[in-house]
Automatic annotation (TrEMBL):
One GO-annotated biological process of the protein: endosomal transport
Domain Smad anchor for receptor activation-like C-terminal: 1-290
Lineage, top ranks: Eukaryota, Metazoa, Ecdysozoa, Nematoda, Chromadorea
Domain of life: Eukaryota
Gene Ontology CC terms, in alphabetical order: early endosome membrane
Any Pfam family hit: SARA_C
Designated name of the protein: Smad anchor for receptor activation-like C-terminal domain-containing protein
Amino acid sequence: MKHLVGCTVTLENDVTTVKIPKSAKQDLDEVISLNRTMIAWATDVNLSADSHLVCEENDGFYTTQVLARGASRKATGASFIIVDGGLKTDGLQMFEKKRFRQFLCLQISVVEDGVAIRVPSEKLESLLASLNSMQDWSTSGSSGAQFIISWIDICPQTSTHGPTSSIDGLNLADKYQYGLSLDRAISSVLQVPSVSDYGVRLSHVYDLRNGRLTPDEEPKVFSIAEMLARECTGMLEPYLMMLINMNIMSISVRVSVNAENVEYDVSPWFGMEDEQLKYKQNMDQLIPVFYDILGYLPGGFYIELTLSFVCTKPLPFIN
């Protein structure tokens, strides 16, 4: 199930609200392209809610529990959402409410640690049109239940969990991470000529700006990250074995480039502070390269990449 970073679900009384950051539009388009009659995606933990749905498995049977912070519970988060357009309205019993007769057009139910929404097919088409144009959308049922989709500019919450930068402790949980397909990660080991048993792998690339890169920018920024990984690995040669012997098995490099200035930083090398300073000074030779990149990517970039040191010794043959 596709995960939409920054998206949250809140169940509060009879109202189910889904908030989607505009930066997740590209991922949502991918979800919709797979199946237009039923869409589903995983969401973030809702930090603003005072409780959260959890699923417990026991001997093959699944039960839903609510994990609450305190005794009172007003808003509950969920881990995923399903919207199904298969709700049939023809022949359904009609309900009397305040002298108005309404068809049942919305069903909301809890499924494990997520929420399932069922609406008629025409309602789903209306929802899909709104999602495509990034417009807020809502519908109501005859029982008073409401389902609301709301677009937000940026992710409103910052998790205290997840990856953090080894440079300054910046939380990276809500930053987009690129290029980590398994095949690409395995094939990205860079060799250092004087170190035969270890290589350097570009293991993480984070975009530190808010939101997500455009489809045109994404491959360009990652190709820049791969170029930086090669240059940074070449400058690591005098220090690589010392770092490994100090049990420092990865370093992070942060680079910000725009038309006004170039900034870069490297994670601390504890016990090797002088060597780390020399390494940062050696990066000055990349400044002309950084400015040349603006011709390739006029908007510049702001990324943090992690270079991990991996053993390249062949596994022993077992007969």
